[in-house]
Structure formats: structure tokens, C-alpha cells
Amino acid sequence: MNIRKTLSALAMGTLLGLGALHQALAAEPIKIGSFLAVTGPASFLGDPELKTLQMYVDEINGKGGVDGRQIELVHYDTGGSPKKAVNFVKRLIQKDKVDVIVGGSTSGSTLAVMPLVAKARIPFISLAGSVKIVVPPQKWTFKMPHTDAMAAAKIFGDMKKRGITKVALISGSGGFGKSGRAQSLKLAPQYGIEIVADESYGKKDTDMTAQLAKIRDSGAQAILNFGFGTGPAIVTKNVRQLGIDLPLYQSHGVASKKFIELAGDAAEGVRLPAAALLVADQLPDSDPQKPVLLAYKNKFEAKYGPVSTFGGHAYDGLFIALEAIDRANSTDKEKVRDEIEKTKGFIGTGGIYNMSPQDHLGLDLSAFKMLEIRNGDWTIVE
């Protein structure tokens, strides 16, 4: 059963409910656990993620639940702290006894809890970016966002088309920034690119002009920044303030309107790889993602305002989990895990997912669009 199609049919009044294949279990809710950075420096990730989960759980419950069972969302706000994430995941497993976990806004929090979910043998779908989450694949952990390795590859591919061979790298000191830096250093030679400067900044830094002055004198032909939060916006402003006239690339860690708001006019011309959700209206009608993207975008924006790819990851994770539970006809954790791993042709906001025992993400580079910020909005440049 495709839960999303069923919900659409219900909205038009063509079905009476999602069915009652397991009426005996109707009193027992499906318990979805989540831990997200709703407050703190990563709130631009966690806030739309939580809103998305709540919005769809309420809608599904209002239409009768899944196989006659209501969904109970159990959520804790980590504030972006890996330590809090560990404590909350212990609570989700031991006290709340959730059936599956969809969460982990940041790479640091996700990597910190992976040993716990493996020991507890509970399916976990992460909403964070680091390639380390799924490479090598861990039995109980899956993830929705494109990896930092994919972002670096997409960026370097675009640079190669533009004849850029010397690149200055600057990255945040958090888990995502460090992992993105490592992947960039690893992949650059494959694209004929030399990293001629390698700078970093802390999460509380408010000025990166010292690092950028070194970059200005490095002979770089372009700048790549890996980070999220306010850091990339500060880097973008400082680049313009120093009069550095080089192409500036950001990672998918800034794929929300919040970045454009923070960077202001300095964001003009910045390029980044991102999910097609940000440019759903610009896609051809033949694109199989377009109906899914517009449905989510319109629903979210009608209730909360501008959509971000981060909320989209929560949409993908929730529905992959629920459709796996539906196919398993059970919340047995081993069976649900197996069904998540068998996900094929799932059209989500991040792309079309095809998972396997060797691939707990299920996306390739075609799921990324290369975007450029023009006139304060996103434009597809390929």
C-alpha cells in the first residue's frame, strides 16, 4: 500500500480509510521516535523537520492511521548537542519503547547515537549529511540527505566545466564541516583540482576575514565553504567585504532561504548543490518528482512559510518508515528494518530512493541540482 497515494485519495473522499488489516492491534499506536535540533545553532535544520513530522502525523491520524493504527510521535529537542542526543535516544529506546527512530538533525548527533541503535536493534533513519553515517553501511542505520561526498563531487564537477583547477577550501569545525573537508580533500584530485588553501572557523566565530585574506593570496580560482548555521553566511559576507572576486560555492548545508536572508546581497552568484525541492516550480512536468515536491511544498508553506530541503528530509524519512511498516504488516523491528532496506523507487523530496544492503541512502548524483542564487532566489544552472 502506498500511504501517500492513499492519503491523497482520502482527501478526495474516494476511500473510507487506510484499512484495518490488523484490527486486533488498533489500540496500539505506531511509535515514531525523534530527536532534533529544534533550538540552538542548528534550529534551521530541526525546526522544519519537526514541523513536517507533526504535520503529516496529524494528517495521517486524522485519516484513520496506518492499517487502523494511530501514530504517536515522541520527540526530544537536542539543541544540537550530541550528548543530549545520546541521552534522549536512550530514553526513546528504554522508556518510550519506540518502534522506529526518524531524527538526528546533525552529523555529530547521528554518529553519537549509532552504536546505541545498533545495540538496541532498532531501525534508525537519520536526517544528517555525513557520508560516515552510511559508509560503510551499518545494519540498523539509514539516512535521507545527500552525503557531503556527493556534494563535493557535484561541486567539483561544476568547477571542472568552468575550467577551475585551483580551489581554496574553508570549513566549519563541527562534524559536518570536518567531514565535508575530508571528502573534498579526498575527491579533488579525481577532478583535476588542487586545493591551494585549507582554512577553518569555529561555530562561534563572527568574522573570517583573517582566513579569507590568506585565501585571497593563495592563487585560488574559486572558494568552497563546507558548513552550516551562521558560519557560511558570515564567510559569504566577508568574501564580498574583502573584494574577493572569485566564484563562491557552498554545500547543501545552506539549502534554505535562511541562508539567503542571513547573507543578504552578498549571496548573489553563490552556487551550491541542493535537492530539487527548492526549484520544484522550475522542473518540467515530465519530472516524476514534481508532483511530490509541489504537494509537500504547498502544504508546508500554507502552514509555516518558506520550505527548506531539511523539512523535506523529514518527509522522506517518515514515509519510508511508515511504508516499510505497512509492507511488513508489523512493527517488528527486524522486519521493518528489512523493508526499509528493500525500498525501491520511492519518490521523495530528496530524489528517487533505491536502497540495498550495500546502500543505506539509495541516491546518486542525479538527485542533486546545481543551483545559483540570483535576485535573492534559487535558479537551476544545469
TrEMBL record:
GO-annotated biological processes:
amino acid transport
Name all Leucine-binding protein domain ranges.
Answer: 29-360
Matching entries from Pfam families are given as:
Peripla_BP_6
The record's CDD domains line, in alphabetical order, gives: PBP1_ABC_RPA1789-like
- For this protein, the parts annotated as crossing the membrane are none
InterPro entries the UniProt entry points to: BCAA_transport, Leu-bd, Leu_Ile_Val-bd, Peripla_BP_I
Q: Which domain of life is it from?
A: Bacteria
Q: Which family does it belong to?
A: Belongs to the leucine-binding protein family.
Q: Which UniProt keywords apply?
A: Amino-acid transport, Signal, Transport
Keyword Transport among UniProt keywords? yes
Q: Which residues form the signal peptide?
A: 1-26
> Has keyword Signal?
yes
Mind telling me what this protein is named? ABC transporter substrate-binding protein
Organism per entry = Sedimenticola thiotaurini
